[in-house]
Amino acid sequence: MKSSLIRPAIALALAASLAACGGSDKAEFTVAGSVTGIVYDGLVLTNAGVPLKVAPPATAGTPARFAFPDKLEYGDTYDVKVTTNPAHQNCAPGVPQGGIYANNADTAGRLKTIDIAIVCEINKFTVGGTITGLTGAGLVLANGSTGGTYSAATPATPPSTTPIAYELPVVQFGTTYGVTVSKQPAGQVCTVVNPTGTMGDEPVKNVNVTCVAA
Amino acid sequence: MKSSYLRASAALACAAVLTACGGGDGQLLLGGQISGVTKPGMVLTNNGGSDYEIPVPSNGTGTTTFFFPTRISSDDKYDVQIKSTPTNVDASSCQLLNNKGRAGFDVTTIQIACAFKTQALTGTVSNLKSQLILVNGADRVIVPAGATTFNMARVAQDAPYGVSILANPAGQSCAIANGVGTMGAADVNNVTVTCEP
Hints:
The complex is a heterodimer. By secondary structure, chain A is mainly β. Chain A has 1 helix and 16 strands. In chain A, a hairpin with a 2-residue loop joins strand 2 (43-47) and strand 3. Mean pLDDT of chain A is 88; it is low at 16-24. Chain B has one helix spanning 2-22, and strands at 30-35, 43-46, 49-53, 63-67, 77-84, 95-97, 100-102, 107-113, 118-126, 132-136, 139-143, 149-156, 160-162, 164-167, 173-177, 180-182, 188-196. A 4-stranded mixed β-sheet of chain B has the order 4-1-8-6, with no helix packed on it.
């Protein structure tokens, strides 16, 4: 008697849980995610041709959440792309925390929720120019204490009269640079023109160095 | 009788397998990434031995990947610690991550980050009638009108510095003396800015 009661009870419970899963209400999925590193305005994402503007977060340094208005059903595919970058930045699908691959394109329902990672970085450009008149060995240029150095190759004998183009490591948009002669070449004194500035939207190529006999 | 043979041979087989695994010459890498190496003297140990001095990377960044020359074996316990640091590193700042464990595959995820000792970079200004902006590369300092001293951000030992003028004060032109050098083990406080007229 006892077991005959238990069996129908189990069957009922199973049926109930199945209904909860499959149900008549179709599961809906929101194509959502977060953008990290966004600082400037202008980012536009698209999914299946539908654009979505994403503004920088109110609190700097926090991720900007986004959600496309159209809901997806189980099995629908999505493919979120960056169509317009913010000013001075470059954004691309990134790897979510704990993940291995970018998750901007997938099929709705494969995971419980859709949480796409988009990562933005501020553009960086090199600082450089030309070196004229270098005959001595040992010239080192530096961009402050953290901006890297450039060590000029020992000039050939006789020295070439063609100016040498040089580049220091990249500097982020909006950051200052200040190029100085960290080590003077043997027997010469070099001076820098246009040594300082604030990085804009293209490489700096006018920090020119002229060397003369000491 | 039969079973005792079986047991003995099983024990032998086990021993053989264990030797293959545990032996001295392993096949697995033990390493990861380290920062703060611009001078010789960064020595790491594994399980208190296998001293390994990290070669100084040539790019001047102080950051490099490293692997102990002695390989370890599968299932070996490892415990990587810092034995000594270069003179320009603040040893108390070093942080180690994923430095202990038991090897399953190549260990490449050890993270060691050390900060450099830093020194102050300061100076004096004379005859400054309106705002002056100084930079040491990415470090930007606004010196207000009438100021007689200024402080740049602290600079890591052995790093170059070069204080230059981003924006002269209105109607004035300033010149810098002692603005360029390489930071030693003492603070630099002799950068002199003179403004005219």
